[in-house]
Amino acid sequence: MKKGQKRQTVVVVGLGKIGLTMAAIYASNGFHVIGTDVNPAVIESVNSGKSHVKNEPGLDELVEKGHQTQQLSATLDTKVAVSKADIVVVVVPVLVYEDNDVDYTYMDAAVDQIAAGLTKNTTVIFETTLPTGDTRDRFGAKLEAVSGLIAGTDFFLAYSPERVYSNKILSDLKKYPKIVGGINQSSLERASAFYKQSIQADIIEVESTETAEFAKVAECVYRDVNIALANELAVYASEKKVNILEVIQASNTQPYSHIHSPGIGVGGHCIPIYPYFFMKRGLPEGLAHLARKVNDGMSIYSIKEIDDYMDGLKDKRVLILGLSYRENVKEETKSTTWLLVDQLKQKQAKVFVHDPMFTNIEIKNRSLTPFIFTEDETKKIDVIIVQAFHDEYKNLEFSSFSNCKLLFDGRNALEQHEIKKHGIAYKGLGL
Ligand SMILES: NC(=O)c1ccc[n+]([C@@H]2O[C@H](COP(=O)([O-])OP(=O)(O)OC[C@H]3O[C@@H](n4cnc5c(N)ncnc54)[C@H](O)[C@@H]3O)[C@@H](O)[C@H]2O)c1
């Protein structure tokens, strides 16, 4: 910040994995930051200088520093915080219901509070992934109606997707350019200037909020479709007794080939959700639909493979490693584990779930049976399924599973020979 310049106040609404990290970064780059959340435990931890988000390298230190320098604080009162803001950044999830229609519950509640506190000249930036048009038509309209202010003149409205990856947010922010779109030129200029100072990354200014929204959803749909292709190739490779990993590695030496990795399923609150932002909004058929079907179908395919190998799974004790949708992150939204548990219950197997990110009580509270690592329990396991290969599993003693007949490696993360030497058969996807 230049000498004599007024320190701007940024309010970050939603202090989750992304919101807290962004808040701490803005604070470290000279802004006065107030974070808001609906979870009192989150507010308490931020106000004592502690990050509630684990496994995010560099975040603990940034939150502690923000607290010590009084640049970072948190409150449950979004309305009051917003009334003091120069800039409001919104990072509250938008999800889908069971029927895959868009679920705005969290975001609508947050926008109600922002609208109630909004004052003249504030810049509001949405970072949550949104269906195209929502920043302007759904949330902008709400902000105008409640505050009585005009978007684009009285207050400014922009959209900038968050494209980082949990566990790598701080390093990703430096690597990926920040896409920014505004509802008009003044909104774009203000949002761009904010990001130039607050994250010091390259900025890509696009024509509108709609372009910026679309760019993020398109990127996620591309990944979903690409993974579906990798999954189809993996199933075929399995039939042909060819190693898919070798195939992909060889194919991708051609610069136009970017085949992703196959896997037992695609989870989390990004890739399996955002295709529906197209599909439920005017894209009734096509590749995005097919990709969702293929990727969700991988859990059915995998359980069938296991069932065939085991000659039935009735009363067999199956251990799923990983409740999280992927390795090293505590996030179970749309985790493939839910699909696997459904399939296994249909086969009348006894299912146990282990995940070092969750306590046994947290697993129990999700109506799952936690696996307790004792000599007796490990001996009784018949099948292991690797769903999320957390770093902790790298040192797992597979020899202790002395009666295990099969390990199904849903992430192709383990070395076959390492498993086989303990007398456990190994199956991977397309291996
Ligand atoms: N996690 C990722 O890897 C990732 C990557 C790119 C983009 N994103 C985007 O960021 C969004 C947030 O992701 P996240 O991982 O930080 O989610 P998260 O679940 O970790 O955190 C969301 C936070 O919002 C809070 N919240 C809910 N309703 C609220 C309200 N009305 N007011 C204030 N706070 C409220 C929750 O209590 C929670 O702390 C995603 O929906 C996605 O669009 C996430």
Question: What are the defining features of this structure?
Answer:
15 strands, 16 helices, 5-stranded parallel β-sheet, Rossmann fold, 2 domains, alpha/beta, 431 residues, single chain
Structure, explained:
- The protein has 431 residues and is of the alpha/beta class.
- The protein folds into two domains: 9-215, Rossmann fold (3-Layer(aba) Sandwich); 289-428, Rossmann fold, CATH 3.40.50.
- 42% of the residues lie in helices and 14% in strands.
- It contains 16 helices and 15 strands.
- It has helices at 17-28, 40-47, 59-68, 78-83, 105-117, 134-147, 169-175, 185-198, 209-240, 244-251, 275-279, 287-310, 336-346, 360-365, 375-380, 416-420; strands at residues 9-13, 32-36, 72-75, 87-90, 95-96, 102-103, 123-126, 156-159, 178-182, 203-205, 317-321, 350-354, 383-386, 406-409, 425-428.
- The strands form three sheets. It has an eight-stranded mixed beta sheet, sandwiched between helices. A five-stranded parallel beta sheet has the order 12-11-13-14-15.
- The model has no long low-confidence stretch (mean pLDDT 96).
- The structure holds nicotinamide-adenine-dinucleotide (NAD).
- Nicotinamide-adenine-dinucleotide (NAD) binds at residues 13-19, 36-39, 42, 78, 91-93, 106, 109-110, 128-129, 162, 164-166, 269-270.
How would the blueprint of this fold be written?
Blueprint: E1 9-13, H1 17-28, E2 32-36, H2 40-47, H3 59-68, E3 72-75, H4 78-83, E4 87-90, E5 95-96, E6 102-103, H5 105-117, E7 123-126, H6 134-147, E8 156-159, H7 169-175, E9 178-182, H8 185-198, E10 203-205, H9 209-240, H10 244-251, H11 275-279, H12 287-310, E11 317-321, H13 336-346, E12 350-354, H14 360-365, H15 375-380, E13 383-386, E14 406-409, H16 416-420, E15 425-428
Parallel strand pairs: 1-2, 1-4, 2-3, 4-7, 7-8, 9-10, 11-12, 11-13, 13-14, 14-15
Antiparallel strand pairs: 5-6, 8-9
Helix pairs in contact: 1-3, 5-6, 9-12, 12-13
The structure holds nicotinamide-adenine-dinucleotide.
Nicotinamide-adenine-dinucleotide binds next to helix 1 and helix 5.
